[in-house]
Amino acid sequence: MSKVKFELEIPVHASPALLYQYFATPSGLEEWFADKVNSRGKIITFFWDDSEEEATIVTKKADERIKYKWTESEGDDSYFEFRVQVDPLTKDVSLIVTDFADDEEAAEEAKMLWENQIDELRHLIGA
After folding, report:
1. Which of 26, 36, 103, 113 qualifies as a FRET site for 49, CA 20 to 30 Å off?
2. Mean pLDDT score of the chain
């Protein structure tokens, strides 16, 4: 079954370098995304309450983007990615989150979850 890809673009008043630290380092991710994060090379383990999920870093470019692939979704093309975009004219910074869901309904729920998580991140960094 193919998954539904979706993207969220959220304006964030922070420098790309600061923002990148919050989604590319275990300590940054622990502040807003997961309760605990362990890193072993390209393998990242996320912990929430009683559950844990493992992902692999597929690609990353400092201060710009990082793409993760959940281990459980090895058989499909899904991933989740954080991308920092800077408007060349206004210098406004946006965080673009790309993710996949099983269907349109699940995608809407996932978007709401991501929006809540990103709101927490924005509050954390005062953006």
Report:
1. 103
2. 93
